[in-house]
Amino acid sequence: MAVLLVEDKLFRIHRYYLTQGSEVFAAMFASPPEEGKDPDGMHDDQPISLPGVTLSEFEALMDYLYLPPHARSRYNDIQQNMDFYRDLLSISHRFLFDDIFQYALQQLESIRGQVPVETRLLIGDAFGLKDWLSSAYESLLDRQKAITTDECKAMGFERVVAFLRAREFRYRERLQIAEENLERTREGHFSSDPSRSERTPSSNQTLLKMFLL
After folding, report:
1. If DSSP codes are grouped into helix, strand and coil, which group holds residue 9?
2. What is the greatest pairwise CA distance in the chain?
3. Quick check: is 207 in a domain?
4. Which of 5, 87, 105, 147 could form a disulfide with 47 if both were Cys (CB 3.0 to 4.6 A apart)?
5. Is 104 part of a structural domain of the chain?
6. d(C-alpha 182, C-alpha 196), whole Å
7. For 77-132, what is each residue's pLDDT tens digit?
């Protein structure tokens, strides 16, 4: 068993679970102790401290390691489930639990459409997930309402400016296309005239490549 300290709480966990799944923990436990001293994590008064790890993150890891798969998703509320798997994603990324990271990501992928835009941005940035960033940007481009304060904070100044440029480009492009179509109608040109074929607006992916990705 190993004794670990997270925030102000002690946990006792089988070393096997930690060393088999994580390169970080495997290296940690393989390091020899100082001469004449017991290794850290052997006793409650000499635990292995995990600074920067939150209690909710470590509890999510414990649930994954000790509970059967059907019991891990223990919440009926979508927000609580999202928080649980986000915590699991964070701690597995920090300690290189590759299999657990992929599991948590898969669970979040299944509810990505329900995850708020600002959270998708934060997840995409934290773990280098371009699909999550693209999903967030597309949601913002497709909707009419303005960006919220939380979304601006998640994007940062430079990306907010880039997004506003993309949205303005879309608005101007669609306005120009509408004016061209109106002019074609007045002149009696129709889509059957190849020389005056109707333009289509730029896709979301095109705008993202131009301004954000």
Report:
1. strand
2. 95
3. yes
4. 5
5. yes
6. 12
7. 778 889 999 999 999 999 999 999 999 999 999 999 999 999 999 999 999 999 99
